[in-house]
Write a structure and sequence with these properties.
Layout: E1 16-17, E2 21-25, E3 31-38, H1 43-54, E4 59-65, E5 70-75, H2 81-90
Antiparallel strand pairs: 1-3, 2-3, 3-5, 4-5
Helix pairs in contact: 1-2
């Protein structure tokens, strides 16, 4: 058990993020991008990445799945792939 007020987080040693790939384009001009992410240790890691991606301007929805090591992100077409990768790095995964 983690003592009250102490949060534990294991920072992965080796995380690899592949370049986002367009999964589908929606009728409302948004795109669904898929990112392969390695190095997550638990669902809390996925939640941290999901929150970081959701904060990026132009991201409409982000879903990170720990078991598949994949993120699906619904974005405006104006968003850069570098912004998404930076968000994942800002979550502590690089």
């Amino acid at each position: 058990m983690i003592p009250k007020g102490k949060l534990g987080h294991i920072k992965p040693n080796m995380t690899h993020i592949k370049t986002p790939e367009i999964v589908e384009s929606a009728k409302d001009s948004t795109q669904m991008l898929s990112l392969d992410i390695e190095g997550m240790h638990c669902s809390s890691c996925a939640l941290l990445i999901e929150k970081s991606l959701s904060k990026v301007s132009g991201v409409q929805h982000a879903n990170v799945n720990f078991s598949s090591s994949q993120a699906l992100v619904k974005v405006d077409p104006s968003i850069s792939q570098a912004d998404l990768l930076k968000a994942v790095e800002n979550a502590g995964y690089h």
